Amino acid sequence: MSATLLGNQRVRTVTIVPETPTGYAEAWEFDCVVNMSESNPGQAYRHPLQNGQEGITDGTRLEPPEFSVDGIVTDTPVRYLLPKSHQGAAALYEQIKAMRARQIPLTVITSWAGTMRSRWPEVISGSHGAKDGASIGITINFVRVRIARLQLIASQVDSDVLLLGSQSVSISQPVAG
Fold it and tell me: How far is CA 127 from CA 57, 92, 108, in A?
């Protein structure tokens, strides 16, 4: 990945791409990234199992890695020459909330941590102060997820099931009398 420099500082960017067929059409990025952080949480269990003579056993559990970004989106970012080519801060904020509501996994591309696939915005918060003008501060905490979607598919009934008539089996016992 190439580093883009602004003066002597590396420019920090975060781009969010939904993992859908039209993902790149719905992709957006922060106009200014204030802070990025990555964490790899886990939990250690102290003496969770004590079974007879086996002794005391400790254990660990790894939690999904988390990535958090704090940035700003504006109505008139510098990188767009024409104001009509940008949706606006409020529309981008609503778009990320809609992606979360649709439970679509996202790909997060950052200048610091690289490309992170299958992320879900666990926490989204926005702030807009009186001095902020046409900008919204957005903080998003992404967690890694594996989403499985279940779907019912009609199966073809085979000839054995049709001959038997039913798949249920009943067992009757004589009643002592």
Answer: 46, 13, 21
Give the SS3 label for residue 11. coil
3-state helix, strand, coil in the chain (%, to 5): 15, 40, 40
Greater confidence, 155 or 129?
129
Structure tokens at 54: 């086996």
- At 2, phi and psi to the nearest 5? -90, 145
> At 50, is the secondary structure helix, strand, or coil?
strand
Q: Which CATH architecture has domain 5-144?
A: Beta Barrel (2.40)
pLDDT over 70 percentage in the chain: 64
For the chain, the domains span 5-144
